């Protein structure tokens, strides 16, 4: 039988059936051959295929050309339009829309901005988006894989068969896209990719997936497109006016999976956390909740710091709408929400970003640049504009879509230095021969600039452990553009001091004072973070020396020392009630400890410290400026006593005095900033906190001094292992 001119060539039919056709959109669907329209469809399992228009007009029965499910036929039709098929076989019949009768969803302006690297709405364009297109409900999928020979979207809807939904390649950008009719909310999918060498890669999760399966499953999920109804408008309006450097910031750092668990040991939902965690943190007087990464991650012991789904709130606690409800509840309670964000590295799980299209796409191909020896992970290629766009868009996505108040950027030091954790010969110098990662520096400047420009009132925090200059200085002033930087030096030095027996502390006095030397070179957050209470480091309580009474007294004195010191405050969950055991992500905190008075006393102290910090402007309004702090006594090594004054324009000063030995000191004379009566606002030795209840009940009288820098002096009783806050009280 003579083959007609409109019929497809056999080799092209075989290419479709074998999933190797180079241009499925130029071959499948409705094609014009000369003056004739031809329909070609690949519908495995079908034995008969009838074509219809969307309004039900029958176009004809297609002829099977290949037993694998390829059909073809001439149709009388006047224009290109979506086509619906009625498929039949021996067991039944079903309807199927033809994805190859739909045009592209992305447009030339997308190509332009993507190609330029300036597209700031990629999360609206890439990934899986349920939508109506050409009058048909379905889902649009798009993914960047420029070096692939073929990319298909696969899932239960097509038996995970990559031959059935190959995507259209946009050659200018390397993005592949397809609109698949009918699919919608809850569709499970991955991408099947044939690399440039023709090798079929392991199935890949969607880099832009906004919802993911619960581990150990690894597929992406099409999310519900229904817009979330926020109730935090007033909160956001007020937030936009704040200067956080001069605003109280006391942060409760929390790992959602182990703060509390359900009675059966399973994870709490976002809604349960909104009902329990939010009021707890608000009642404790904190201003913010900082979440260890809740971006989707396959391995629980990574704590989220090895994320795969950078756009997906983890399914451990529910769906994206549930996370939005959690943030909304926090804002209703006056709490900000900060997310730990991880652009420094990503895991090499085969379903993730590594070797995504068969090449080193997101990472460097050279392991000296693209592999992180500390974590056995890959490093983003910050010199590639598409990778930078992926990450910048991700930061903006969390700030916009979930109304987050800030991002704490993890492991910034590892991004800044090309030789981070590497020996000589194991790293590649920059173009000037130095060890600075110029491309990462530019990325950080850009993401910080865009965040502050587009989302006033939000802030970016750097976990940066070196002396890189200007981390929290504006980009226009030559800085990296962060709002704040974690003060890792304060944390390490003061914990070293506090872990020593009191008799030895006089020889290490500078560990407690050194942070004041550089304390205003950056806008600092003082952290006592999760990293300090794991992996054999012991809980904060167990770091303290002495018997049990002294451990608690040391911890109370230390907390008040930190809350009185310049800088914003951060405390990891469980330490607010003196958790005894190290933290583990695998179990809940030991909440039963609150039945013991000593533990409840620490919790009361943290609540009162937060309240004093918020209510007394001298303690927060100049946290990041040197005029807000002055030593009164900084060199009493022999007695291990520290005293300073906190100040703010137009506000009464606050005097902080710490005695870091178990020896009570009567008639200890200190200079004072003002003549008159001073009373204790905080005394960590108070009976309310399960201390020995000694102190200066009734207050102290500051008398006029005779010359010198300070106008007055007072004689105090310093309780053992204690910190006092003294506020001025008019006679």
TrEMBL record:
Q: Which residues form the Glycosyl hydrolase family 13 catalytic domain?
A: 253-622
Q: How does it assemble?
A: Monomer.
> What does the record give as its pathway?
Glycan biosynthesis; glycogen biosynthesis
Q: Which residues of this protein are catalytic?
A: 410, 463
What job does the chain carry out?
A: Catalyzes the formation of the alpha-1,6-glucosidic linkages in glycogen by scission of a 1,4-alpha-linked oligosaccharide from growing alpha-1,4-glucan chains and the subsequent attachment of the oligosaccharide to the alpha-1,6 position.
- Please give the InterPro entries that the UniProt record associates with this protein: A-amylase/branching_C, Branching_enzy, GH, GH13_cat_dom, GlgB, GlgB_N, GlgB_N_E_set_prok, Glyco_hydro_13_N
Key word Lyase present: no
Q: What reaction does this enzyme carry out catalytically? A: Transfers a segment of a (1->4)-alpha-D-glucan chain to a primary hydroxy group in a similar glucan chain
What protein am I looking at? 1,4-alpha-glucan branching enzyme GlgB
Q: What is its EC number?
A: 2.4.1.18
Q: Which domain of life is it from?
A: Bacteria
Q: Which gene encodes it?
A: glgB
UniProt GO MF annotations? 1,4-alpha-glucan branching enzyme activity
